[in-house]
User: Fold these one by one.
Assistant:
Number 1:
Amino acid sequence: MSTNDARDELRRVVRQFLERRSTESDVRRLMEDEAGYDPAVWTTMADQLGLQAMAIPEELGGAGFGYQELCVVFEEMGRALLPSPFFATVGLAATALLECGDQEAMKRHLPAIASGELVATLAVGEERGGWDESAVDMRAQPSGSGWTLSGVKRFVPDAHVSGLLLVVARTAEGLSLFAVDPHSAGCRVEVELTLDLTRKLSRVRLDATPAVLVGRAGQAWDGVRRALRFAAVALACEQVGGARRVLDMTLDHVTVRHQFGRPVGSFQAVKHKLADMLVDIESARSAAYDAARAVAERDADVELAASVAKAVCSDTYTRAAATAIQLHGGIGFTWEHAAQLYYKRAKSSEFLLGTPGHHRDLVGRALGI
Amino acid sequence: MTAELDLVVTTTEDLLRSHPPARTPRRDFLAAQFDAGLAWVHFPVGSGGLGVAPPLQREVTLRLADAGAPDGAEFNRLGYSMGAPTLAAWGTRAQQERYLRPLFVGDERWCQLFSEPGAGSDLAGLSTRAVRDGDAWVVNGQKVWSSLATISQVGMLIARTDPEQPKHRGLTYFLVDMDAPGVEVRPLRQLTGEAEFNEVYLTDVRVPDSARVGEVSDGWRVAMTTLMEERVLFNRERTERTPADLALELYRTRPDPGPELRTRMIDLWVRARVQRLNSRRAAANRTAGIPGPEGSIGKLVYAELNQDALELCLDLLGDESMLYDSYEMSAYTEESLTRRAEQDVRRLFLRSRAYSIEGGTSEIMRNILAERVLGLPPEPRTDKNVPFSRIPRG
């Protein structure tokens, strides 16, 4: 079987599973749910489909597939709008552990992530917002043989259901990464009311909370930055999946809906918007797939490819979801229609891991301008 | 396959031995290449081919390029890219023998006589008439946007032979001798100052029936082959310096472009990169036999991207953009065709308005994407099954 056939087969399996287990009514139920995800679906994803294990190396309990395979999964999850800590756990935390290269931490946490036992997340941003070095003020204090952390982390995806928080903080040596058990003393996780109800974000308050250093003190940023870029590629694939879903949804609508005695999709004003949406989405798809390939092959310019993908896919998804609402007319503005769910996911994921403007600025720096 | 590959490789090596490119005049080399069957290897023997699989042409092209052999395409762009494939698909054996060799060696340059003042996007609404007279046709009408017509010998013409049929069905395809009496070519000056295109007036031009390509009244299908090949011309990934490269070069020469231009520069660079990735994915899918929608997207995206890039170039150039190099009227000549000088960026900027019009307007491209790729219902058409003679025009 060729690589492409294998990916098509993976896509088919994941799509079929999500069409059954992440229907619109499931999504709406979980939006109101405190945990915000379905643990039974999570377990099936781990036990039967092996999704959490996919891109984790075999010696750490994973299946050792590449990043491009993982990105197929993200695209399908974005398409189904699956509410799940999968992005936080696999996209952020597992990638951060792998990129920071602390063998002991990897051995402790990755097998548990791979098996589906552990939900984890990565905490970077604070009150100011942002996802780069300058966003981090939190201090780590040495305490006996370990460390304690104090301060507030914001916009942490799925922290409220995580058993492991990976937290970026400053030591005298510089930026460092810490593992925090959210049940430890002084740790409070407060779920916020989010624009996008399908992905929960938390405020994490730490007050002299004990923490275990991951990697070397002051040496974390290179690994964390790479992890954030790779996760941005996963997010870009999620965005492509969502964008294509709203296009499909809109095509169905304009073919069925009649006004002036014709399907509304036969009017050029409508057609041209959809053609532009198609062009946008296929371009975004090219950017996302190229970035996934760059991660898998460890291209020298992988971070540039990631920033291009995150910028382009973010803009595309929001534009596509907004156009979908417009072309649905009044029904698209209602709570009962699914268009709003995608629009909120689109707008919110523009900010997650850095705005399109931020990523374009990174591209400019890479070009030396 | 291996036998075919051997044949192609051996024949190419023989050609290069018998006609060393460095010491062979260009026309002689092209003639020898044609006679060896290496013009289009998949064409029949005797018509410039060896009757082998089309992908083997690549083996020839690469070897000839390495050896520094001449490329006839730059002297007869439309003949090579559109004329030859059309003849291969629809021409009779006699027509292939008559036209292909002169086309390939550069004795006859080709031009296109399709668009009319009254038939642009709606090409099938054309009104140039061809009326049968014995073993010939008498053609009357006016064509426009014919590039290279001043220096061409063969015109690819579609004309209406039956106005009582619905518009797509009464058309016939001919090859017109551009030197025949009654063919008048007038250069059409465009907004850049020069004349890349021409108007072609056809007054009682006699075209022998032997120069008809395809059946009478079946010209639309023949023309489609020509037009598909034209779109490929616009759609390819360009290897030369692109307008986006040009903008970045200009950007780097500006001491302090400021945040607004920086944002636009980066955005443009990102768009150019993404479209390059799109083209590559389209090409990879075509090779794998999956014709994806990204193929039809290229023409539309490149047009708008390059327009924006050239606009940015002018904004980067600053006040110098208020000046121009020369509005002197000039048309294509044999000479200007051989030296393709670096064009002034302001001229390219003005020229770029045509990108979204020529070869199918962006609006028509969007219709195609919406109807053929997304499967949306066609707009109701009042001219669909009506005899052409009863369709209002103007």
Note: The longest strand of chain A covers residues 201-214.
Number 2:
Amino acid sequence: MATEAQGEEAGGLVFHPMDQFIVEPFFGEGAVAWYTITNATFWMALAVLTTFALLVLGTSRRSIIPTRMQSVAELAYGFVYKMVEDICGKEGVKYFPYIMTLFMFIVTANFLGLIPTAFSPTSHFAVTVVLALAVFLTVTVLGFVKNGTAFLGLFWVASAPLALRPVLAIIELISYFVRPVSHSIRLAGNIMAGHAVIKVFAGFAAIAVISPASIVAITAMYGLEVLVAFIQAYVFTILACVYLKDALHPGH
Amino acid sequence: MATETNSAGLTDAAAGVDHAASAPGMPQLDFSTWGNQIFWLVLALLATYFILSRVALPRIGAVLAERQGTITNDIAAAEDLKARAIEAEAAYDKALIDARAEAQLIVTKARADIQGDLDAAIAMADAEIAAKSAESEKAIADIRASAMENVKEVAKDTAQEIVAVLGGTADAGTVETAVTARMKG
């Protein structure tokens, strides 16, 4: 509302593509303390509830011949389970609930964020950095606990010529520590960019001549964002699996 | 960027919210909200993890395993039924072959029986015919013998009569001997 008023006041095109990402208290107004229930809290809670509805309420009948909801739940289960099993092997299946938690949270948050006027928790670096760091720290700790110092073999490419190995070790080390950065920025960046672009196109809709093209563009972008919502959740999950595989089986 | 920053500041001002840190224009970089988001994110992730690991995943896993089991059982049952069908077909074929062989046997036996009866009947008829013809032959022989005897009698009598007519006295014994001798010759 405030945005529109601003636009009219300025008497021209005013874009506020980033306003949709502002974290503000869900009830009333005021400062955002760590415990405040904010719009981010609300949409995260909705993501949890959606996960619950899909995976628990949807399968409550435990039918041999599944209902539609149960089919989707089973599909999600099979999708992530197969991913974990294919990439990490049999030992990785133990960590399937963690991977599934990541996937379900990201995919539901992404899709809920596509509802008009919704808020996407996954468009915030605060969220994706925590998710990526959780994966990074788990994988690093797990790698040392499982393999001891042999985990450092990940950085020492034994198949390369001896002279090249120190150089490769530095490169590997850098790439290892860049992982959580790219892992988190990829997800938040994709979601944020998509939502911002839609908002920019929506801003153009204020001009009567351009508005049809703008609406077509919004529709097209929205379709793309539906894909991105799933693909980014998939990419985040599959990368988590790949990193987990490094912890379970270091070496190339 | 400058416009954006400016307008964001204005918006916040209009909303009556003091967001000093949102000045850079990217709410993502407003670190004052990070603590809030991280706190609720950790809570959300824990909730999701407990929902998944305690209820959802074991249940879905069980349903999938049960379905796999049912399918395996059904396939096994279907294979069993198929094997039984093949067995039944084999039994049917065997029964058919047996029945055919038996029918053949019965036909052969019946033919042999009929042939035997026929042979016996023919033999009996032959024997009867033989007996009848032998009897007839005997009768003919008797008749022939009696006819010869009669002829002999007639000849003797005739000879005696002829002798008597010629005026001789005919000794019966002589005449008989003579006639017998002549007839032999």
Note: Chain B touches chain A through 51 residues (CB under 8 Å).
